[in-house]
Amino acid sequence: MSKLYIDKCPICGQNQFEKVMTCTDHYATGESFDLCRCKSCNFMFTQNAPVESEIGRYYESPDYISHSDTHKGLMNSVYHKVRKHMLSEKARLVSKSSNLTCGRILDIGTGTGYFADKMKREGWQVSAIEKSPQAREFAKEHFGINVNPPETLFTLKEKSFDVITLWHVLEHLEQLNRTWDSLFKILKDSGTLIVAVPNAGSYDAEKYHELWAAYDVPRHLWHFTPTTINAIAAKHGFIMTERYPMPFDAFYVSMLSEKYMKKSHTFVRGLLTGTKAWLASLNHKDKSSSMIYIFRKKRL
């Protein structure tokens, strides 16, 4: 298996790293992967993950909810109920942050297409990109959406989108800097970039440490905090104009983390930790389990 060895920090370009912890792939293989941190800018990443061309088998699990539609089990049922609510919240956020009620939107990492379908029904002209062939087929069959493979991102027309969204996708993308360059190229000068990622500086990340489910190795390559995502955005010509906590994520992530700890009553334990995490984010939103960031191009 070919591995992705990071020898230079994607953000600051330095090459002095320290091992932070070792995490286990609880979804697919049981393999272990090291998380390393740049000593210069504190950006954290998964070292020696499979390269993009070989990582597909690590997604081949019916439990990997973002690429499946299973409702089996209590946590999956909870996930889908929350997702239905969040689709409306995301659509409202798109309109609020862009000051548009319709336009051209690109959803990168669209999964099975629920958000893309929501925006299409809201009157937007939707384009979508997804790595998983099975998920692309699901979106086509259920929503009539033609979803493009990931290499399409680098061929799209300059300044062609009013809004670009990446909902829990950026942490998966091997070509991190090239992706940011493309986002800048294809977004209109007045456009809005919306990025949601897990927050490695969150209350629940600190509690669960290497068992925090949102590290999700090796599928998650990059482990952002508000500081490090702001740094890489600025490197590529963006400014952060707003950030929002995602309070529901703490409940689901905590339930999974309790499961990884092999605790009993994982639902109740996760619910309790999720509540504590939610309360912590009320006083300090940068402690939220996941964050939504709004970016715009810097004005020259």
Overall description:
There is one protein chain. The chain is an alpha/beta fold and 300 residues long. It contains eight helices and twelve strands. The strands form three sheets. The chain has a six-stranded mixed β-sheet, sandwiched between helices.
Sequence-ordered SSE layout with sheet pairings:
Elements: E1 3-4, E2 17-24, E3 32-38, E4 44-47, E5 49-50, H1 74-98, E6 104-108, H2 114-121, E7 125-129, H3 133-143, E8 161-167, H4 176-186, E9 187-198, H5 203-208, E10 222-223, H6 226-235, E11 238-245, H7 247-260, H8 266-283, E12 290-297
Parallel strand pairs: 6-7, 6-8, 8-9
Antiparallel strand pairs: 1-5, 2-3, 3-4, 4-10, 9-12, 11-12
Net shape: globular
Number of helices: 8
Q: Largest sheet, order of strands side by side?
A: 7-6-8-9-12-11
Structural class determined from secondary elements = alpha/beta
Number of strands: 12
Q: Which regions contain 5 or more consecutive residues with pLDDT less than 50?
A: none
Write the H/E string, N to C. EEEEEHEHEHEHEHEHEHHE
Global mean pLDDT? 92
How much beta, percentage-wise? 15-25%
The biggest beta sheet, please? 6 strands, mixed
Question: What level of helicity do the residues show?
Answer: 25-40%
How far apart are the termini? 45 Å
Radius of gyration from the CA trace? 18 Å
